[in-house]
Amino acid sequence: MKKGLVMEGGAMRCMFTAGVIDTLMKAGIDFDGGIGVSAGAAFGCNYKSNQIGRVLRYNVKYASDPRLSSWQSWLKTGDLYGADFCYHELPVKLDVFDTVAFQENPMDFWCVATDINNGESVYHKLTSGKEADLEWIRASSSIPVFSRPVEIGSRKYWDGGISDSIPIKFFEKIGYDKNVIILTQPLYYRKEASKLYPALEMILHKYPAVLKKLRTRAHDYNDVLNYIRKKEVQGKLLVIRPPYPLEIGTMEKDPQELKRVYQIGVKEVKKNLQAIKTYLSE
């Protein structure tokens, strides 16, 4: 039996994820592997480094810092979330990401990015937690229009959510058969097709493979939600999700709002902790 933790993205909705993973870590729950998409990867990697409270701490401390996220950053660099600050200065100097603990923890950790040339998902296993891995997390979190493509090697990447928002099928394929999924939307949420697609066709016309994925993204996302729900009802996986819409802004700057959503995640785990432990031990 291989226990897996799957974390979708969702920008600041992932403060819910932060509350969930901190509470799971405090409860001593271990996984053989984890995989995250976008903010799910950026926050979820702290499970492998065992840094309880780090995600909440740095988001609250730097919430209003324009280096973290701002329209000024977007206009100046092409990145809504400051690449140098988020993936270099913050984890290396200001709130240090524990690369030693990350490397020593036997838990595997993956992130998902989208190849902008063919639209395919790329699943990258993070091994060091250092600069090269942080670039993959940056790629996984780089939203088209609001971020520049991230070049790694000879390829360029954008957000993993374009091609695989909830990578449960990938994890099952590589042998994880006891999975916990953290979602950032409530039960029965279904994604609607974006009304902005015509505008995206104009802006992203140089990236036809990405546009093709964006065109079917709502359908693909809802398909995987239906797959997850079916297996959840059958008891074949366990889902932790918010009990109601989180209603938090993509670039939320209010520390109290960040804490509010974080606490929803904490409460959901505490409420269901025994069920989680039972599921993982069966």
UniProtKB/TrEMBL annotation:
GO terms for biological process: lipid catabolic process; proteolysis. The keyword Hydrolase applies. Residues 5-172 form the PNPLA domain. The keyword Transport does not apply. A motif (GXSXG) lies at residues 36-40. Coiled coil: none annotated. It holds the Pfam family Patatin. One of its GO terms (molecular function) is peptidase activity. It comes from the Bacteria. CDD domains: Pat_hypo_Ecoli_yjju_like. The active site is at S38 (nucleophile), D159 (proton acceptor). Keywords: Hydrolase, Lipid degradation, Lipid metabolism, Protease. A motif (DGA/G) lies at residues 159-161. This is Serine protease. It comes from Lactobacillus johnsonii.
